[in-house]
Design brief:
The chain is an alpha+beta fold. The protein has 3 helices and 11 strands. About 20% of the residues are buried.
Amino acid sequence: MTAVPSPRSPARRVPPQAVLVLLLPVLLLPGPPAPAGAAPAPPAATAPAGWAWPLLPRPRVVGAWAPPAERWLRGHRGVDLAAGPGAVVRSPADGTVSWSGVVVDRPVLTVAHGAGLRSSFEPVESSLRPGDRVRRGQAVGTLRGRDHCDPGTCLHWGVRRGRDYLNPLLFVGALEPSVLLPVPADLAGRQRAEAPDGVRGLSGARGRAGGA
């Protein structure tokens, strides 16, 4: 007797919506717990807020930040703050003393604040030694020695992140935003009239594009 094969039932297709419904509880399961004592990932290094001025009361800036175009060129890699001999110098933020000694012909104090940031002060005499911890606003030395603010006296304050010098005023919120002032209509017209043809055409095209 020959067996008669039973008819195959057609394969059932499961709609994708049903698959998603079945997998959704699995996808939402919480992952394994973090190991005890694990620290959160550190945030990206930025200019920290809340630094303090190294002199009290707030000093006058007598030497502006003027970095060189290239590392090997001369420039002013910090700011000069007006202060008299013997003025108390304070740490602008928490940190650790990384240098205290004479460089060339003047006493220098350097404080490492973490995240690659370091403050340097000169001419500053200090009894602190490398490795000493300091707090924001703590007195760390006195202004004493030869500086470059003749005929007056000043504190030179520099800030570095790694090998790059930064403007210290960024850290105490003393930089005002740039303001673009409107150009008087008569002056703008005179500048357009005196400009060469090619430049005048570009100026007009730029003005039309900006007004569109």
